[in-house]
Structures are given as C-alpha cells and as structure tokens.
Amino acid sequence: MATSNATLLRGRILSFHRAPQGPDDHTAYLYEEDGAVLIENGRIAAAGAYAEVAERAPADARLTDHRPHLLLPGFIDPHIHFPQAQVIASWADQLLDWLNDHTFPAEMKFADLAHGQRIATAFYDALIAHGTTTAVAYCSSHPNSVRAYFAEAEARGMRMLGGKTMMDRNAPPALCDTAQSAYDDSKALIAEWHGRGRASYVITPRFAITSTPAQLEAAGALLAEHPDCHLQTHINENHNEIAYTLDLYPGHADYLAVYEHYGLLGRKTLLGHCIHMNDRELGVMRETGSVAVFCPTSNLFLGSGLFDKARLETAGVRTAIATDVGGGTSYSLLRTLDEGYKILQLQRQRLHPFETFYWATRGNAEALSLSEKIGTLDADTEADIIVLNPAATPEMALRHETARSLADELFILQTLGDDRAVMETYVAGKAMKAGRRI
Ligand SMILES: O=c1[nH]c(=O)c2nc[nH]c2[nH]1
Ligand SMILES: [Zn+2]
Fold first, then answer.
1. Which of 64, 153, 156, 249 is deepest in the core (most CB within 10 A)?
2. Ligand 2 centroid vs 243 CA: distance in angstroms?
3. Separation of CA 35 and ligand 2 centre (Å)
4. Where are the domains of the chain?
C-alpha cells in the first residue's frame, strides 16, 4: 500500500489573515490553543483545531507534538547581505566609513567560490537557527557568490531570493564590474537561477554611489526585460550618503528621482532604509508601489536615524522589516522586532505584538508579493513553519509565569527571545534543526 508522506504538527497555532489594527483586532488572525498543521508533499494541507485537522489526516501521518509551544509561519527577512557574515559586529563610524573599512574588504573574498560555499553553510545554519525560512540577500559582485548562495538554498529546499551586487565605481577595483559586465552576468544568473526550484533572482544595484549612470540604466533594462524579478537597492540611509549621491547625480530633484529616472521603481522594488525621505519621494513610492524596508538594528548600529513608519504608511507606502546583517547586528527577526519597537516608541508609534508578528511573517510576504506562497499557515501554501517557546530561557520562563494572554507571550518572545526560543524550523515540511549540533 502506498504511504502518504503526511506529517501532523500539533501545538498552539498562530497565523495572520491581514494586518491587525491594534490589540483588539482578533479577527485579523487565526489562533488555536490546541491546533495542528497537516503537511503533505511539503505544503500545508490544512491548519486549524487539532481534532478537525487530525480527522482529515491520512492514517499513517507522522505526528509531532510541539505542545505547549507556538507554531507560526517561518520568519521572512527581506534585506540581508550574504557576504557580510564576517562583517557583523565591526567597530566603525557611520555608513560610508563602515563600507570602506570593513564591508568592501570582506566582500572581495567572495571571488573565491570555496570561500562563498563555506560562508553559505554558516549563513544558512544561522537563518535556520533563528527561524528565518526565506530571505532576500545581496550577494557580492562576483557571480560565484550567487552560485554559492543559491546552491546551498537549493540543497536545503529553501525559498530564497538574491542577486549579484552591481557596482562599477567608488569601490576597490577587485569589487568593481562594469555596466556591461554587470548586465551580462546578471542576465546569465537570471537564466541559471530564476524560477529554478524555490530560487528567485533579484536585480541588485548596490546604491547610486557605487553605480555609474550607465550601470543604473543597465539595471533598468534588466528589470524591463525581467519584470517578474525583484529589484533591490539602498536609499536615504545617511546624510553624507544623500549629499554624495546628489553630487554624483546633479539635476535630479532628490535621491529617489535618480532611481525613478532609470526605471527602477515598482511593486517588486525593495528600497532598504528610507529614513530621510521627503514628501515628494513618499508620493512616488506610493504611486509606484515600491517597498520601504526598515532595518532597525542596522539603523541604530550605524547611527543612521529613525524610520518613521507612521509617516510612510499614512502616505500609502508599503513597508517591510529586515535584519540587514552585517550593518544589522542580529540574524534574529525577534531581536529585529524588539529594536524596531524601540525606534518606533521614540516616535510615539507603539506597535502591538500582533502588529509586529504580522509584519515579520505575512506582512513581509505581502511586501515581497509572495503571500500566496509563504508567510501564513493557509492551506496550499509552502510548509515553512517555526516552533517558538516563550519560556525558552530561565529569564523568559520567570517572566512567562505572569503572562496573561497570547499577546503577552508574543511580547516576551520579541523582547527577550532570540535563536534560543526557536525550537524547530521546518522548511517545506522538513525539520531542519533536529539533530543539529549545538
Ligand atoms: O546598510 C547598508 N549596507 C550596505 O552594505 C550598503 N551598501 C550601500 N548602502 C548600504 N547600507
Ligand atoms: Zn543593506
């Protein structure tokens, strides 16, 4: 008799239907105290009350009981730098010095495929340990770094997005490509990886300072030729960066006008940072549907400034939240939510834990236009699921004794949690942490 290959995960399940509008918006999410997720062929077949889901499960389904822990969709990190795994925690001044002193030297090593492969193993171990099941990464300017990045994702079955950084000036010669070679290499990498298994290619001009006008034009041509690819770049992170950009691109109204001019904006465009935005820029972001990606630990670490979520969202701008390792200081979306919460607190924008956990899961999936595939526990989506323990450490357990609600527990996870709170990470239904040496 054929076996079903089905898995049943039992635990407390939480998944969002839409963005919660504050603490009392209980219809924005599904929560089952005794819940279950049924997984078949790497996809979610059903999620809901244990009794109902178990009844639907094939008789030979393998049961894993995660009670009393929480089952959530895997975290999504929409902005991270793969070649900066050895840059994280580098003592530096602000953005431009940090890039020159630490980041560019580290990225040069990725010309060597073997180096990229070694870092890829560690990088994906870190993502899994921290409960991140999808990320959008900048690779280095070397096509080999993209190969190392996607090959390791493929070996682990992960939905990952990324691309070769395009940069043809204001960086060491060993990192610089040309407008033409960046176009040719990106095109070849799109043919090699985009849509292969769970891989998606992201056209990746680093930022205006490290691209000539000819290269931004090449990036715009790539996006026009491959509208199903995402595009990522940085903008309005640091005052010196902005001034230098406007020197390099005279005649443009502001920083965003440069990217607008070269046709880089749209619903698949991810703009890292968006801290120092003017009103015109917000209007263009809204009209084009481009996404502002908030990188809290990086913004604090590099002293860049405070992301104004309320202002952006009131203006109709789509937002996401990300780690930005290695300017960012943690792979953990929990740590990232905590720092983001504090940045918003400073601006009297206090997010409820329902809002923050929505953001790191379904919210980021929507920002990537991927919520049909990932970011929820909805039936027919890919079974990327994490198991969180709000009492994972002695300090968390002590605080957890007085938790009165699910929201309390989420806030404990966000404020005190990190990879120690991630008990298991499932990728396409497969347990990735079990058996991992610690
Ligand atoms: O935080 C950042 N990290 C980077 O690597 C980078 N490159 C340009 N601008 C950047 N900002
Ligand atoms: Zn970045």
1. 153
2. 18
3. 37
4. 6-74+376-431, 75-367
Mutation probe of ligand 1 site: the residue of 101, 234, 244 with most atoms within 8 A of C-beta: 234
Atom of ligand 1 at shortest distance to CA of 304?
1
Residue 419 Cβ < 6 Å to ligand 1:
no
Q: How far is CA 194 from CA 145, 187, 197, in A?
A: 15, 10, 9
CATH level 2 (architecture), domain 75-367: Alpha-Beta Barrel (3.20)
Residue 320 alpha carbon to ligand 2 centre in Å: 13
Question: ipTM surpassing 0.95, yes or no?
Answer: yes
Does 206 sit in the ligand 1 pocket, CB within 6 Å?
yes
What are 58-97's pLDDT values in tens digits?
Answer: 999 999 999 999 999 999 999 999 999 999 999 999 999 9
Mean pLDDT of 194-200: 98
Percent of the chain with pLDDT over 70: 99
Q: Is the CB of 341 within 6 Å of ligand 1?
A: no
State the CATH class of domain 6-74+376-431. Answer: mainly beta
State pLDDT tens for residues 158-195: 999 999 999 999 999 999 999 999 999 999 999 999 99
119-156 per-position pLDDT tens digit: 999 999 999 999 999 999 999 999 999 999 999 999 99
> Percent helix, strand, coil in the chain (nearest 5)?
40, 25, 35
